[in-house]
Batch of 2 targets.
Target 1
Amino acid sequence: MAKYYTEPSRTFSEFLLIPNLTEREHTPDRVNLATPIAKYKRGETPKLSLHIPFSSAVMQAVSDHNMAVALARSGGVSFIFGSQSIEDQADMVRKVKSFKAGFVVSRSNLTPDHTLADVQALKRQTGHSTVAITDDGTPNGELLGIVTSRDYRESRDAPDKPIHSFMTPFASLVCGRSGMTLPEANDLIWERKLNCLPIVDDNQHLEHLVFRKDYDGHKEYPLQLLDANKSYIAGAGINSRDYAERVPALVEAGADILVIDASDGYSEWQRDTIAFVKANFDIPIGAGNVVDREGFLYLVEAGADFVKVGIGGGSICITREQKGIGRGQASALIEVAEARDAYFEETGVYVPICSDGGIVHDYHITLALAMGADFVMMGRYFARFDESPTRKLKVGNNFVKEFWGEGSNRARNWQRYDSGGKENLLFEEGVDSYVPYAGSLQENLDKTLGKIKSTMCNCGATSIEELQRKARITLVSATSLVEGGAHDVMIKDTGLSGE
Ligand SMILES: NC(=O)C1=CN([C@@H]2O[C@H](COP(=O)(O)OP(=O)(O)OC[C@H]3O[C@@H](n4cnc5c(N)ncnc54)[C@H](O)[C@@H]3O)[C@@H](O)[C@H]2O)C=CC1
Ligand SMILES: O=c1[nH]c(=O)c2[nH+]cn([C@@H]3O[C@H](COP(=O)(O)O)[C@@H](O)[C@H]3O)c2[nH]1
Ligand SMILES: [K+]
């Protein structure tokens, strides 16, 4: 006979935190959100930790190299999507690892034979007023000069004036050499009163530009997540099929942490994948997803460094409808967190858990942490930002960004070209959608982190560990849910003309 659970499975919106005494020292500026993401023994320092408990989902529409840089700069980690060729994924990892803060690849480039009109058109398009002039008009061509708005007079100069007649030529430029550090570049910018320092190699090929206005950049990102060589930490998603080829390429590219990306991680495929990685490499590997104690312990015994929790709760997920597997995200997390704590108690080994999918409101993150998650993984949340890889479109009067599930045909299509996969899935487990465009990652993150810290202070906690120890969590009845929103008032429409 089947085993029946007596409790229904529940989700975040059914719970609330009850405040504890807030003492004087419980202020948001004192809250530390550092959190482990790889297993460690009691008393030891975790091998890898985040400065904020956020990771971005292993999805085409979310985690490419740009998102990875932006999130690592803010203290979290991206797991670069694996639904692409091994070479392309390794390339993205390489881009993150070789990214040098303050050193930007020139985004506005022309040749000396272009004209002033081309400069103006490019400026309108990119918003950058510094244009690198290279022999072939590429960002890494031979540097022949620079054009800034100080080199021409829009009102007087003819639009067809060729760039070589008014650019600041290479011979008159102050340039930095390849391999220079950011402080060295900044010193040069300061001493020579420059706005922009081109960095060139021995053959006069342009590598990067360093801008004066980015000078204080490092101060803006006090939480940035770096390795010992001061490169950003990069994660990558893998699968339980081509790992023997994919993992070596990702490790070689410099990945710092891996995760097996699948809907259901309670499988011998995942056990074998973990065994392969552990036998051949010294890199932390997470596995999942699971929704119960058994699944968690199976992956831990198999050697997983962290375990991801959640089946079917994601915003674009239709797994529960299609296959009838899954569990309310809160119930899954609560059971796995209990198993993790018991395992720690018994063995002295702490295995971090990640709550993956289904975060709708910022407070859901705080709840997930309070329920025992060490960090969360989010897709929809990050898909809305400038830094996500998808197109920004105008639909009606609103800007949106595209967002599709990894189980949708759209995401799976790469296999048709890369590994001879099936034309179409037998059935899709994800949808193709839009999410409202929300601006930059940093702006949104600041707001979200502000809310989390504020709630933690209500709960008398200045660390995630303290929150987990002290949190008091209550179920809310369907009726009291209504009480939690605005009710029994007429909400004013803003922007309407008066009657
Ligand atoms: N978290 C969630 O609720 C869900 C996530 N997704 C996402 O969709 C993507 C695809 O997920 P899945 O379909 O679970 O991928 P998957 O490819 O790991 O699993 C698909 C099927 O292949 C089987 N399989 C795995 N490795 C195998 C091997 N080496 N040999 C033979 N069979 C093997 C699995 O048991 C499963 O039946 C992932 O990005 C995942 O995160 C999809 C659905 C739900
Ligand atoms: O059923 C699914 N079909 C899909 O196509 C799909 N793609 C991603 N995922 C999972 O959803 C998580 C992101 O969820 P959110 O957007 O809610 O943050 C992700 O982190 C995944 O766990 C999928 N689940
Ligand atoms: K299974």
Target 2
Amino acid sequence: MSEKYQVVNGNKIHENGDREQNDDASLKEMADCYRLILQNVGENPKREGLLKTPERAAKALLFFTKGYHQKISDVINGAIFTENHDEMVIVKDIEFFSMCEHHLVPFFGKVSIGYLPNNKILGLSKLARIVEVFSRRLQVQERMTKEIAEAVDEALKPLGVGIIVSASHMCMVSRGVQKINSKTLTSVMVGEFRTNQKTRDEFFRLARS
Ligand SMILES: Nc1nc2c(ncn2[C@@H]2O[C@H](COP(=O)(O)OP(=O)(O)OP(=O)(O)O)[C@@H](O)[C@H]2O)c(=O)[nH]1
């Protein structure tokens, strides 16, 4: 973070655009924005049912984007164990909810993660926690897939990593082109998963089963 900053509505804005968030100040600022949005869709933000909606919506958005404030090392919390296991480990169908950075509407689906250990294994829940860190942000599916792969690769230094993501994008389902049943599939293969056809095939077969 740069040394020079100004305080705007309780949040520090650095000269390079970085923002140090003060949660209370952000909540208030965001709630004010939602109040304006309500007015602009033709609503009365003062009617009873909407009185607390701006604060609720602000809290919800902070929850949907909580991944910005999480660090992979904190999430893994040291749960890397030495183990002489050299077969593929797969955790599949990890549900995620994310938000499309183009329209700020949800996209959601499942992530399957596989890796080939190099004498180190990761606590299983940590794979799902890594998915949370990168999905709880404004995203595009391709970048989220890559970031998950890189995080697993960096944490474990395995012989290879494979990630498959299948998702429905509300920006394509409920608006725009309105293709209700469309699914987007993305994958990233690292190390043996990229270079060894057999490893790759085994991963895709097991992830599909
Ligand atoms: N590659 C990729 N595209 C995405 C993702 N999420 C949303 N998009 C696309 O982002 C594009 C934005 O296109 P624009 O033409 O700028 O916006 P738009 O007029 O709202 O587009 P339409 O959705 O076609 O109505 C759309 O094609 C979306 O489907 C994603 O995760 N990955």
